[in-house]
Write a structure and sequence with these properties.
The protein is elongated. The chain has eight domains: 170 residues, Rossmann fold (3-Layer(aba) Sandwich), CATH 3.40.50; 181 residues, P-loop containing nucleotide triphosphate hydrolases (Rossmann fold), CATH 3.40.50; 63 residues; 193 residues, no CATH class; 98 residues, no CATH class; 151 residues, no CATH class; 169 residues, no CATH class; 126 residues, no CATH class. It contains 45 helices and 35 strands. An eight-stranded mixed sheet has the order 4-3-5-2-6-7-1-8, with helices on both faces. It is of the alpha/beta class and 1247 residues long. About 1% of the residues have low confidence.
Amino acid sequence: MTPPIIYPDLPVSARREEIQAAIRDHQVVVIAGETGSGKTTQIPKMCLELGLGEAGLIGHTQPRRLAARAVASRIAEELKTTLGERVGFQVRFHDQVSEQTQIKVMTDGILLAETQHDRLLKKYQVIIIDEAHERSLNIDFLLGYLKNLLPKRPDLKVIITSATIDLERFSRHFNNAPVIEVSGRTYPVEVLYRPLHELEVEDDKAQDLQQGILQAVEELNALDRSRRDGGPGDILIFLPGEREIRETADTLRKAELRDCEVIPLYARLSLAEQSRVFNEQRRAGRRIVLSTNVAETSLTVPGIRYVIDPGLARISRYSYRSKVQRLPVEAISQASANQRAGRCGRVASGVCIRLYSEEDFVSRPEFTDAEIRRTNLAAVILSMLQLKLGDIAAFPFVDSPDSRFISDGFKLLEELGAVTRGRKLTTVGRDLARLPVDPRIGRMLVEANRLSALTEVLVIASALSVQDPRERPMEKRQAADEKHKAYADEDSDFVTLLNLWHLYEEQRQTLSQSQLRKWCQKHFISWVRMREWRDLHRQLHLSVRDLKMTENKTPADYAAIHQSLLAGLLSHIGIKQEKGEYLGARNRRFYIFPGSGLFKKNPKWIMAAEMLETSKLFAHQVAKIEPEWIEAPAAHLVKKTWMEPHWEKKRAQVVATEQVTLYGLIIVPKRKVHYGRIDPQLSHQIFIRSALVEGEYQTHAAFFKHNRDLLASVETLEAKTRRRDLLVDEEALADFYLRRFAELGGEDIVNGQGFEHWRKTLEKEQPKALFMQEDDILQRSAEHVTQQQYPDHLVHEGVKLALRYHFDPGAEDDGVTLELPLPLLNALPLKRLEWLVPGMLADKCTAILRGLPKAQRKHYVPVPNYVEAFCQAVTFAEGDLYEALALHLQRMTGLRVDADVFRGVVLDDHHRMNLRLLDGQKQVMATGRDWTALNRRFSKQAEQLLQQASPNQSWGRQGLTAWDFEQLPVSVKLRQAGGLEVDAFPVLQDRGTQVDLQVVSRRCEAQRLNPRGVARLLMLMLPEPVRFARKQLKQLAQSVLLSGKRFEVKRLEDEILLSATLRAAELFQDVSGAPLPRDRAAVDALLPRVRAELHDQVVALDKWVFDLHSRLHRIQKQLNGKVNLQAVPVLNDIKQQLDHLFVSDYLSVAPAEWLNSYPRYLQAIEVRLEKYPRELRQQCLASEQLQQLWQSWQKKLTEAQQRDQVTPELLSFRWLLEEYRVSLFAQQLGTRQTVSEKRLKQLLAGL
């Protein structure tokens, strides 16, 4: 038998009949009562008494899980039934409802979840929405849902219970439903206003919050002592947050208030610390509880007789502009202030001190904004879409949300891929709606399933959905931090949670429950929250299984885990800036929260589970990420910009540099992408211009080669004439292709692959459809550009050398370039290069004349006329250009001009032949216009290459000791690698104990080497006469000593013998054109004469050298004595003269007629040494003049050798300088011929 229902003595009980009548007669009733009125526990009983609960459940919602369990227990106790039978409850992780249950107490979230599968809530007969005044998101959603449901369920009763706050609004929402107000206060509350600026203390200065609170506490202490009505009453002080609680606690403790215990109370405290507030047995005098607004409605603190209300609270507000959940400190509403005051009238009459003025109170808003007007609506929108409840803007909320918040909620769902841009639910969205977590966290799970990281992400996702289990007691913060550090990850706070889970699971498997609790306490971990974490994990595990998701058995790596998390946190990413600041989505700037394990690490890129604005915008639960992870999950959100579209030959496609941004953050700075799909029209034009017009394309197409060859031929004509008026511009060429492609159906071609397919199909029927003709590319006729004027080859002694023309002023190869094989470097004369080609001669001569000084240039005006006359009269490439020009101009004007004046004119590069030196493989070794410099650098290599003749040629023999070959020709034709034939000059190279038969590239080099080589070969063929002659060198040793270390014995001995052989064979004259023996018969004819004369020549030379070196010795002694500094130039000049005269091989290289003059030259030096102190100034000037003449001759000789144009006159000039010295310093000795400075300079100019 069911026991009778008994009602305790509570205010609501006294109004039972009125309340039951209203419930019976109306579908909706609003019942208002203050805390303690009994409405929560008694109204369900009244419904039972009315017979409700028989045809369906009496559903009773609570905002919090703890309240749901406590209320169910209380009602079951009063109905004398076991919890879970007649009265049951269901919360997030626990369901204690049976078939006998009539009253089901649950959280509002549970009832909302049931709407997913029971749209009409058919199992309920009554639904009681308790604490409706809190206006949470769930409550407002339920009130709107019920409003729509009631017409469809006329049998359903709805009861709204609330504190006496904004009752009319609830009534209006349900079509003016009746309102019953029940008083809940048992004792009166006196409200005192103590604005901070009116409180007085000793220093009479404006007080801050802590000082104001201290003043109020002291006032309440005094008031309490004056009442003497029982024990000391406890004080409840409301504060905005943890920081203010800590600061106030420090202030009160320092005040050393007598018999007072300061107790903090806020949500993040450990359960043990929270329990201190409710433990009446452990009290020690008056308790001062410092609480956030958690004690306003959620928790009832026992024993409170006094309240101090600063009138402030941290109100969670979502900013649709910055997309950030903010926690600003705001002034509370009148309704909240009255709720706070009501907390001190429970056990006796109370006093509430408000630290603001009554005027301030009256001016405040009447009610606190409903949560729906200050939070992100994504979860609500997702549920509504899943339930197909229609347009959220038209949904009957008690307070309609701001349209901007609705729009923002859709944007977040779009970010998560839950809805389309048309606001339709996606497959992902349907999955998210079925997961009992925030949409962001649900998105992580969906992605984790795709990336095989679901096992790990389930743990993290459930952790993010419950309160952090790590505890940090105020007095043990350092110890807690040390324990927490043991499993902290340096790169990810999410991995830290995963590590904590694994650590806890290890302990749970091995420890008993009591041991596990102790372990948690020791490691500053909340056992209760860990259990909640595990419960939610189990629930999510079942949910993902229902969605056919698969948990991975192989552990996921860091990248897979964090890429999964990233899918839900795309707007919570950031890149490091300066001083710890991060730049986030939409130009948002934030900092890593100090409690994060990454606070001091500051990685370059991070993501955060939450962005919360307090004193600054802080990122909570942070992890290091790689920017390349972002694009894939954000593909539908990123913005792409493309820069510098251009053709890339290697890819055969148009590419561009792509930059990818997400919410203003550059996640891909530069990436090369195919541009054809992005802008086909522009890509087609770029393909035409770059690939076809500019030729940046590789194809075997016949049209392409034909067109390129045709264009190249016209470009060559332009290069030859140095004009840009023959070939049409690139725009005209592009127009040709654009027009043809359009006509032939190829206007969509953007890359090589597509073009080749189209072209091959086209060419089967029209093989020449894309061929250009001359008329397509020529602007005017080019008949004047002939091969005669601009040949493609330069022919030198039968060898054709390629010429290349280029017109690009300032470029290295501007003008005409001669491709010169290395073996021909020494053979090609410089004077031929100066003529260039016939078509360029007039321009060069014009530049020469216009480059003359004005005084000379004026004689050749107008220049073009003189140039034209010269070009018509001269034979092209005959002789020296500058000399030819000087001669013809002299004939035309009668004025003599030195050719060197023309040579001195500085010309633009294109007026000088450019040389491209090629090796045997035709690879470029060097380029340049300075033939002399190239010759100096590569002449030895050219000589070596000459020796590498074809195998069937006999040059290159070594180790000859007799003339065992037929002839020594003046020159030969050698075939080089590649078939090139070059002129070479055979020589007998003296190697001391043997002779080598080689070839050289210069005739003058052969003339210099051959006399000595022949002489050596004669000596080797006459060993006995030479051995006998060597024994006749009686004065050799003294001659060596007298030379002053200029010679070694062996070297001087060999030079005397070689010189004697040259004299006996009369070979000294070869440099002057005397015949050289060039065959075996001529050599055989010489042998008797040399054999007969060698002895006498050696004896004579032995004495002659001794006498010469004796005179040299005397001169050197004078030069090595004490010297007047002013005489240094003279003495240095003499020393250099001796060095030039007495080179190591002077006896064999100095022509006989000049060698015989050596004694006279030394005698002249002796005269000079005797005279110079008296005429020092004149001799110094003479020395300078002689040095200049010597250097000028040396330069001329070097250039002539490189050009292979060494003349007897040039060689004789060197000895005329010695004669000039005699005429200057010892004129009495006489000279071989008349010499003077003027004569020498004239000779030098003509060389």
